């Protein structure tokens, strides 16, 4: 159903660990350009370097906002978004304020997302909202998706990759059924194999978050090079 090239074009490759150094960004950008992934997702202080390294390629830079806990003030997230865009970000992966959401302060959560979306829309930049679904019930996942849509975001995403649980087919099913017709859904967290990646794409995901891009793509069956899988 999918070729290796088609899967690559859905992967947001992430270098987000706190101990990653400049060389990791430079090496990562080179490999991502060669693999032609969907985007290269980095920390705010790595945005300019990543953009410089990917200049002239077709791979955009994505930058995380409010990462990894989502507890920054809305004004801080908006400024972080603005600076990331100035540094070359074409996509923003922002973390929802999970504590406020679990407190039932939905107005705050929506306005928090709207603050980032407002900065993004000025530059036609994509916004993905990270829900950290491992902390939410099925009903809460659906509610968070609806708030993200109401706030004008483009995608909802399962995880930072630093939470207590990964994406699961059950979680993706809820997200797809809730907003899949109007938003993109991104599976992130635990996406480390070709089979897992293809499984989420078959469910309807438009993007995959991964730090194991090479392992995923190199794990494709031999016939995935030139015909559907």
Structural class: alpha/beta
Q: How many helical stretches?
A: 10
Q: How much of the polypeptide forms β-strand, as a percent range?
A: 15-25%
CATH C-level label: Alpha Beta
- What is the level-2 CATH architecture name? Alpha-Beta Barrel
Distance between the termini: 4 Å
* Subunit organisation of the chains: single chain
| Biggest sheet character | 8 strands, parallel, barrel
Number of beta strands:
8
Tally of separate domains: 1
The name of the CATH superfamily reads Aldolase class I
Written as H for each helix and E for each strand, in order along the chain, the element string is HEHEHEHEHHEHEHEHEH
Whole-angstrom Rg: 16 Å
pLDDT under 50 segments (min length 5)? none
CATH topology type: TIM Barrel
For the biggest β-sheet, the strand order reads 1-2-3-4-5-6-7-8
Query: What global shape is seen?
Result: globular
Mean of pLDDT:
96
Classify the helix fraction into a percent range.
40-55%
Provide tags for this entry:
single chain, 229 residues, alpha/beta, TIM Barrel, eight-stranded parallel beta barrel
